[in-house]
Please model this.
Amino acid sequence: MRTIRAFIAINLPSSIRSLLHDTKDELSKQLPARTMRWVPIQNIHLTLKFLGDIQEDRLPSISRELDLVTKDHSPFNLDLGHLGCFPNPKKPRVVWIGIQGETKELMVIQQRIEGSLRRLGWEAESRKFHPHLTLGRVRDSRQLAVIKLPWGHQIHKEGFLVDSITLFESQLQSGGARYLTHYTSKLSSFAK
Ligand code: ATP
Ligand code: MG
Model:
């Protein structure tokens, strides 16, 4: 049986990708060359759950669980939030844009996905869910520690409609990850 690396995420519209592209350009001007390994713009997404390496035959049951969640929720709006990093600005490793807007709805959906996967045998995630869009990863965090990026600033104010949730396969390659869509589950227009 083939093993695949999988995760569940929200895909972004091209208007948002193009703003994230501008953000990346603005930030990279403030940094020495090669400080960051930027995520290719087409790969940026909002991760809800990282599944890791799974047997391919588990995909249909995961897709079914996603459908059980999305049938109860209608499309909702999210907005780009502020610039932040993990673990903290003194030692930034992952640079991201946060998420605002109807985050309560997002949290409920993420919790339901967690619950569904727990029933399928996944271990509960111990870390709190912190919705974000990863822009890049720091190659050398000693270098970035002395550079001030505008942490906490909202760089672009723009919203987007979330109308589906996607089960992705991630193929790790030397040139970066390649994502393949395995299943897209649409939020229901008929949900309350
Ligand atoms: P690369 O690893 O080559 O930098 P990537 O991080 O985009 O590429 P994956 O490592 O396959 O690709 O990760 C897919 C998604 O799951 C990304 O959003 C990543 O941040 C997230 N992710 C990866 N590992 C974990 C983990 N252990 N816990 C939580 N989320 C994770
Ligand atoms: Mg990774």
Q: What stands out?
A: Strands lie at 3-10, 36-38, 46-55, 76-88, 91-101, 132-138, 159-162, 164-173, 176-186. Helices lie at 14-29, 59-70, 103-119, 141-145. Residues 5, 7, 43, 47, 50, 134, 170, 172, 176-177 surround adenosine-5'-triphosphate (ligand 1) (CB under 6 Å).
